[in-house]
Amino acid sequence: MDIKSLRLFQHLANSLHFSKSAAAMYVSPPTLTRVIARLEQECKSTLFVRNNRSVALTPAGHTLLEFANETLAQFAKMQNTMQTQQDALSGELSLYCSVTASQSYMPNILDRLHQQYPLVEIKLDTGDHSLAIDKVMSRAADIALATHVPDFPSHVSFAKLDTVPLVLIVPKTLNINAWEELNWADVNVVMPTGGPSKRIVHHWFAEHNIRPHVYAQVTGNEAIVSMVALGLGVGFVPKIVLENSVVKSKVKALKVASIEPYQLGVCYLTERENEPLIKSLSQLLVS
After folding, report:
1. Residue 82 to residues 21, 71, 75, 222, 224: CA-CA distances in angstroms?
2. How open is the CA angle 282-283-287, to the nearest 5 degrees?
3. Of 276, 279, 283, 274, which is closest to residue 74 (Cα–Cα)?
4. What is the pLDDT of residue 83?
5. Which residues lie below 8 Å from residue 261, measured CB to CB, with a gap of 6+?
6. What string of H, E and C letters represents the secondary structure of the chain?
7. Burial level of 167, CB count in 10 A (0-12/13-18/19+)?
8. Which of 62, 68, 124, 246 is 20 to 30 A off residue 15, Cα-Cα?
């Protein structure tokens, strides 16, 4: 039983999905299956009950999860005590955020980090915002800018950075000034394929008894802005995405006060919260 195996088990015990955990931890599904089988041999107990539709922890699995959480936390604490504060604050910090956040929030963040901790080397990675939490859980990033969601993992800490409102955008050619003026029966809607926007927008439509005519489902809020700018429909996007879009002049933003805003913040593994580098820099980011 080793640290890597315990980390793989911990992730699977929280996700209860072999394929998702394998992808998030950058191992193949057969490798993950072999690791779990080896742990079951070492523990002399079945850790998961599996069928074609679901995966569940057994009582023995719950016991091992408690052990894994405690062991990994102690291991992180041991690593922390083995390095000096100076060494930590002159090391490397990996950050992950969306492309939009890299244009809006990250310049100020990087400037503050450089001024406060000039010896820290920042490694910035950008991509789909929906991958932020997985990047942290797989340790591909030390800290990530992420959106808080109802099922946020319990072993990942979240510190609020900002509240980001959603706006309804319509083509500039559409002669309306309020969302109430829209005839939803005749309007095409561009929806996100996933992420927090999908849940929020679906909830808003349900609250207002609107059955939207979904013209297209796209990945990424930037793509929604582009499609609306082309006159293909209307859609909800975070205000900050619109503000950084190169086609923002071709759309009109309508305020919708009743729609839930995003809670944007920094996240990191809870077991690492006392590591000097992560503790100091996460506090700086949300101060």
Report:
1. 30, 16, 11, 44, 48
2. 120
3. 274
4. 57
5. 163, 164, 165, 166
6. CCHHHHHHHHHHHHHCCHHHHHHHCCCCHHHHHHHHHHHHHHHCCCCEEECCCCEEECHHHHHHHHHHHHHHHHHHHHHHHCCCHHHHCCCEEEEEEEHHHHHHCHHHHHHHHHHHCCCCEEEEEEECHHHHHHHHHCCCCCEEEEECCCCCCCCEEEEEEEEECEEEEEECCCCCCCHHHCCHHHCEEEEECCHHHHHHHHHHHHHCCCCCEEEEEECCHHHHHHHHHCCCCEEEEEHHHHHCCCCHHHEEEEECCCCCCEEEEEEEEHHHCCCHHHHHHHHHHHC
7. buried
8. 124
Q: Say what the pTM is.
A: 0.61
Which residues are paired to 164 by β-bridges? 262
- The encoded tokens of residue 35 equal 């690791």
Span 240-278, pLDDT tens digits: 889 888 999 999 999 887 898 888 999 999 999 988 888
Q: Are strands 235-238 and 166-171 parallel, antiparallel or unpaired?
A: antiparallel
pLDDT, tens digit, for every residue of 104-145? 888 888 888 888 888 888 899 998 887 889 999 999 999 999
Contact 170, 161 (CB under 8 A): no
Alpha-carbon distance 225 to 215, whole Å? Answer: 14
Tokens of 48: 């998961």
Residue 180 structure tokens? 């109430």
